[in-house]
Structures are given as structure tokens and as C-alpha cells.
């Protein structure tokens, strides 16, 4: 008899089925025992006339008859079960997984991540993450992008030297990649349009609710652009694809968590950095936006444009990495952008320098960048790209106050395990 998923059981009323999963909850009453079984699809109730002899989180196979029941989740339950234990836990779980919410602090939850993640609400956030990535891939595939996989052990820092992890590489100094920036640019010279979904590493010395030492970066880079606005248009499609895929593939998780999915405007509103400072009431000489400014700008975009997304364009050149293309009309500003979503910076991107001589002009010592500059020696089109922080995205969607809640196994200043 082939295995039926828990949530499909109600479609088999009157028939015998075989299900398999974890004992989510065990309730022994005087003359009856209820087991709730959990598998990847959800929950199903099993009813026995005697004590079950299996503890919570035991892994079992159950064969039995499906009967309709108004009281059971999904409207049906399994009766007359034959239960085959596959493995028994050696220890009770550190918290009751059947309660609507885990009653434990975040550090305890993270210390016990392999078990805490089994909780339906915790798992649901990661189903939304997975759907988001599927939507990202589908949207960019449809726009002619090629998915690439680039090295994570690299010879030079890409963003700034400040937060790079150094490693010993066969006796040489090497680094964990802070971003696939140089590779994705080089690969525009090959494929014109590339994207990557992969880990990046930042030695973040600050303990914040939105920074990790390792996170998942959704990168893209495309050639033959007029300026950064062409990149912003692609990003809009990618984000719309992510929201669409969540709606299609993670509807149950969205419902379970009460997630309100955002509308992605056909054209996401944009404000220039100089105006953004005014809107946020910040000092006009500030070279960057503070987190409080980003929150103020998001509120303003919601009020003014009814949009939960806002582009801030034209950040000052002095705050952007060396590969950034200046705004030809106002060279102290750049052809770059951030995308704010629900009060935080979700994406950074922009147009890049694409002429070899422009790189020689901005790099004091081009020698360490020889590998990167090879592409530019041999002709590169005007190009640009962006990177979206995946864990931040899900955190904003599910309204998690801490990015660690939407990271399976977070890495930060204090945490390297599990
Ligand atoms: P940037 O460094 O701004 O840009 O990173 C892009 C996006 O990644 C997310 N992010 C983080 N998420 C979790 N923990 C961190 N420590 C962290 N740092 C950044 C944010 C951010 O918007 N190469 C450029 C991108 C480009 O221009 O294509 C870059 O890496 O959501």
C-alpha cells in the first residue's frame, strides 16, 4: 500500500491507508488515545482504543481505516490503526511542539533549531522562503537570465575590507566571498544576463536584528542597460515573481502565519537620495540613510504612494563601492539604488563602471583585482545588477522582529552551532 500524505487522508474516507510521520501530539483519555501525526504536508489524527505506547516525536508508520469525523482536523481521522515504530526518541523534546506557539526564548529556540524547526509555524516561514526562491528563479529565467554558481573562497574583498572573513588557503591569505559581485560582472561578458542564489559572508561585528555573518544573497547582473533604471525594472519583475510564487506554492503557510502579501506596484515609486534626506528629516550632509530614516521613508511611501516598496536612487558616490557608476549629470551622486521594503533596506544595486580605464582611475592598486579586470580588458557592455537579502525578505513578510527567526541555522557574532 503506497503512502498517503496527512492532508490527503480526508480524500480516502472508507478506505484503508498507510501514513508515516512523527507523533506530533499524544492524548490518552480513559478509553481512547488520540495521536496526531505530522508529516511534510501537515497533520492527521489517529484514534486507538488503548494506550499507544509511542511518545511524542516518535517516528511511526500507521495503517488504518479512514472515517469521517467533524472533530478531527481536516474532517477525517484514521481508526483501527496498526502502528509500526520506525524510531523512538531517546529524550523528550525541549518544548511541546503541538502548542500553537513555542514557549521558549529565541536563544533556546536557536540552540534547539533542528527540533524547533519542526513546529508548524516555524517550518511555515521557510516554506515561504523556498517559494520566494522558486519565484525569483522563474522570473529571471523568463527574462533570459542564466543561473550561475561562483566561488565562495576568493582572493580579494568585494564590498569593503571592513567585514571580510580571512581564511588560510593552503598557506595563502584568502577570504570568504562577501558577494558574487566580481564574478557576476565578469559573467555578463559571457551570458549578458546572470543570476545566482548563494551564501555570502560578512564579518559583522555588530549584534543587530538584521545582520547575519552568513546570509543568502539573490544576485542578478545584466548587460546592455541604459542606466540603473533598467536594473530597477528587472528587480521589480523578480520581486513580483517572488510574491506570485508565494501565493501559489505556499498558500497554507501564508494562511497559517497570517502573512499579508504586499502588492508590487507596476512601477515602484522612487525618490532621489537628496530628497530622501529631506523626507526623512535627516541632516542634508549625511552620506547615507540611517535605519530610522529608512523606516520614515517607508511610512512616507505608504502614505504618499500606497506602496510598501520604495526605491531610493542616487546615493552619494563616496558611500558606494568603487565599481559604482556615477550619475553623469551630477557626478557626486551615483547611478545606484536601494529598495526599501516595510522599513528596511532589502536590496542594493546599480549601474557599474564598464570601461577598463574607469577602473584604473578608481583603483589605487589594480594588482589585486587583475582577475576581475580581465573581463574589462576585453570589452564589457554597460551593465548593472542588484542583490536581495533572502532572510531579510522573509523576516519582513512574516513580520519577524529578528532576522534569526527566518534563518534556519543562523551564524552571528555569538553563534556557530547548530
Ligand atoms: P549589500 O552589501 O548592500 O550589496 O547587500 C545586499 C543586500 O543583502 C542584504 N544584507 C544582509 N542580510 C543579512 N545580513 C547581513 N549582514 C547583510 N548585509 C547585507 C541586504 C542588502 O540590501 N554587491 C552588492 C549588491 C549589488 O550592487 O549588486 C552588495 O552586496 O538585504
Mean pLDDT: 97
Number of strands: 16
Task: Using the coordinates above, name the CATH class of the largest domain.
Answer: Alpha Beta
Estimated structural class: alpha+beta
Q: Would you identify the CATH H-level superfamily of the largest domain?
A: Bira Bifunctional Protein, Domain 2
In percent terms, what proportion of residues is strand? 25-35%
| Rg, nearest Å | 26 Å
H/E order of the elements? Answer: EEEEEHHHEEEEHEEHHEHHEEEHHEH
The number of domains is 2
N/C terminus separation: 37 Å
Bound molecules: aspartyl-adenosine-5'-monophosphate
**Broad shape:** elongated
Helix content: 25-40%
Q: State the major sheet.
A: 8 strands, mixed
State the CATH topology of the largest domain: BirA Bifunctional Protein, domain 2
Number of helices: 11
Q: Characteristics of this structure?
A:
single chain, 418 residues, OB fold (Dihydrolipoamide Acetyltransferase, E2P), 2 domains, 8-stranded mixed sheet, binds aspartyl-adenosine-5'-monophosphate, aminoacyl-trna synthetase
Amino acid at each position: 500500500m503506497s503512502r498517503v500524505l496527512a492532508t490527503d487522508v480526508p480524500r480516502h474516507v472508507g478506505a484503508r491507508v498507510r501514513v508515516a510521520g512523527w507523533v506530533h501530539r499524544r492524548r490518552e483519555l480513559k478509553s481512547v488515545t488520540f495521536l496526531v501525526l505530522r508529516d511534510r504536508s501537515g497533520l492527521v489524527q489517529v484514534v486507538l482504543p488503548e494506550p499507544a505506547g509511542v511518545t511524542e516525536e516518535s517516528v511511526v508508520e500507521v495503517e488504518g481505516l479512514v472515517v469521517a469525523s467533524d472533530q478531527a482536523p481536516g474532517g477525517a481521522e484514521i481508526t483501527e490503526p496498526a502502528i509500526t515504530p520506525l524510531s523512538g526518541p531517546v529524550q523528550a523534546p525541549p518544548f511541546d511542539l503541538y502548542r500553537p506557539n513555542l514557549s521558549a526564548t529565541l536563544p533556546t529556540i536557536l540552540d534547539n533549531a533542528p527540533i524547533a524547526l519542526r513546529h508548524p509555524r516555524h517550518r511555515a516561514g521557510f516554506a515561504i522562503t523556498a517559494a520566494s526562491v522558486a519565484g525569483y528563479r522563474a522570473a529571471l529565467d523568463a527574462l533570459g537570465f542564466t543561473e550561475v554558481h561562483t566561488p565562495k573562497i576568493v582572493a580579494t574583498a568585494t564590498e569593503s575590507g571592513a567585514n571580510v572573513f580571512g581564511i588560510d588557503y593552503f598557506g595563502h591569505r584568502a577570504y570568504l566571498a562577501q558577494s558574487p559581485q566580481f564574478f557576476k560582472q565578469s559573467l555578463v561578458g559571457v551570458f549578458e544576463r546572470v543570476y545566482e542564489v548563494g551564501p555570502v559572508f560578512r564579518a559583522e561585528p555588530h549584534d543587530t536584528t538584521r545582520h547575519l555573518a552568513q546570509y543568502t544573497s539573490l544576485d542578478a547582473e545584466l548587460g546592455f542597460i541604459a542606466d540603473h533604471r533598467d536594473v530597477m525594472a528587472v528587480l521589480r519583475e523578480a520581486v513580483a515573481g517572488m510574491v506570485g510564487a508565494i501565493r501559489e506554492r505556499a498558500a497554507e503557510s501564508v494562511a497559517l502565519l497570517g502573512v499579508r502579501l504586499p502588492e508590487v506596484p507596476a512601477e515602484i515609486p522612487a525618490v532621489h537620495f537628496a530628497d530622501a534626506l529631506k523626507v526623512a528629516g535627516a541632516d542634508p550632509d549625511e552620506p547615507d540613510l540611517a535605519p530610522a530614516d529608512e523606516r520614515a521613508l517607508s511610512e512616507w511611501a505608504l502614505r504618499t504612494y500606497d506602496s510598501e516598496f520604495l526605491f531610493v536612487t542616487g546615493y552619494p558616490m563616496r558611500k558606494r563601492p568603487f565599481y559604482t557608476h556615477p550619475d553623469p549629470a551630477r557626478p557626486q551622486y551615483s547611478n545606484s539604488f536601494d529598495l526599501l521594503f516595510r522599513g528596511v533596506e532589502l536590496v542594493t544595486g546599480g549601474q557599474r563602471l564598464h570601461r577598463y580605464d574607469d577602473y584604473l582611475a578608481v583603483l589605487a592598486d589594480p594588482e589585486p583585482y587583475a582577475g576581475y579586470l580581465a573581463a574589462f580588458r576585453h570589452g564589457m557592455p554597460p551593465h548593472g545588477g542588484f542583490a536581495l537579502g533572502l532572510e531579510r525578505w522573509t523576516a519582513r513578510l512574516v513580520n519577524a522582529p529578528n532576522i534569526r527567526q527566518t534563518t534556519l541555522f543562523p551564524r552571528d557574532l555569538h553563534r556557530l552551532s547548530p
